[in-house]
């Protein structure tokens, strides 16, 4: 693919992205092609970093717990 064709394709995707279509996997909510690319990159990297910090088991546990258990504990201590 020549660079001219590639540029045209990007412009087409950008136009679709500006109309609210998601053109990059993981780029949901981006208002342009570039914004969607940044979102997709940040999302995948953010998940990887958390997974590395907690390890796979900790990552799964965090998903199960949600945010309620910590509020529940502190509520009991104050009462």
From TrEMBL:
Residues 9-19, 34-54 have a biased composition (Basic and acidic residues). GO terms for biological process: response to abscisic acid. InterPro entries: LEA_5 (IPR038956), Sm_Hydphi_plant_seed_CS (IPR022377), Small_hydrophilic_seed_prot (IPR000389). GO terms for cellular component: cytosol. Residues 1-79 are annotated as: Disordered. Belongs to the small hydrophilic plant seed protein family. PANTHER family: EM-LIKE PROTEIN GEA1. This is Late embryogenesis abundant protein EMB564.
């Amino acid at each position: 693919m020549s660079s001219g064709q590639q540029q045209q394709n990007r412009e087409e995707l950008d136009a679709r992205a500006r109309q609210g279509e998601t053109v990059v996997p993981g780029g949901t909510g981006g208002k342009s092609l570039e914004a969607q690319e940044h979102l997709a990159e940040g999302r995948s990297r953010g998940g990887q970093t958390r997974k590395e910090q907690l390890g796979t088991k900790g990552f799964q546990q965090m998903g199960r717990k949600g945010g309620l258990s910590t509020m529940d504990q502190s509520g009991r201590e104050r009462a």
